[in-house]
Amino acid sequence: MACGVVSESGTPYIYCVGGSAAGQTTAIARVFRYDPVTDTINTLTGDDWPGDVSGTILPGGFAVANNKLYILGGFDINVASTNQIWQFDPTAAVGAKWTQRVNTPVGIMYAPSCAINGMIYVGGASDFQGGTVVDTTTSFSFNPAGNTIGSIAAIPRATGETRGLNFNDLMLVMGGGRV
To answer: What pTM did the predictor assign?
Structure first.
């Protein structure tokens, strides 16, 4: 599941996308928002994540930039990593909250990612090779305003299955990895 804090009509909510139970072979494309002030959950109707067309794709990396939630890549369970980027805008009309953006350079899943000054950075990712989840050094930037991918130095150690955090405008990748 991918989650991030975005505002709608000036109120911050936690929006969550997709997910599955551990070890399962199906995923769900639902989108819901949680209001921590009122402790309520509302499932959105008409705005399921379009990146899960088969019912088997989990969100990959994710980050919030400019009040939009971005899903970068994903995991088609037991098949492959994916390379689509999807933008979720909570302020758009029902049925129009998702926009597909440029693709990632390669398929990525479980990718540490974060936003810094309106740019999204990926530092490492997992891939699915020969039936196995493997760590990679895949690293790049995504400029949501320009809808472009940029090159950055590769993370020094292959890693995935963790989070990237913005700390003082630096991306910190917190542990992770299978190897």
So the answer is: 0.96
